[in-house]
Amino acid sequence: MSQFTLYKNENKNSKKTYPYLVDVQNDFFDELNSRIVIPLSPHNILNQTNAKKLCPIITVNDEQYVLLTHQMTSMPKTMLRKKVTSLESLRSEILGAIDFLMTSI
Length: 105
Hints:
With 105 residues, this protein is mainly β.
């Protein structure tokens, strides 16, 4: 598993609201049975949210999604099966959002 890999959410109960999950866990901890992920939600569902530093807008397959940093969670590795792409190019934005959530006053 690789940090910043985007996966399809295959959970039937949540995949409509959160169609994608981005793995943000450091690869150093790859031997653990879980990964820390942040869900992405379609931008239109969130009524054009404007918290771009905490929830950056990410384009996947020409559609806009919001990175819901404040909903970061742990998930079993077995649930992350369908890789979509790497979001390594958005590393600064993703880590900036996590940093903003954890350290800003």
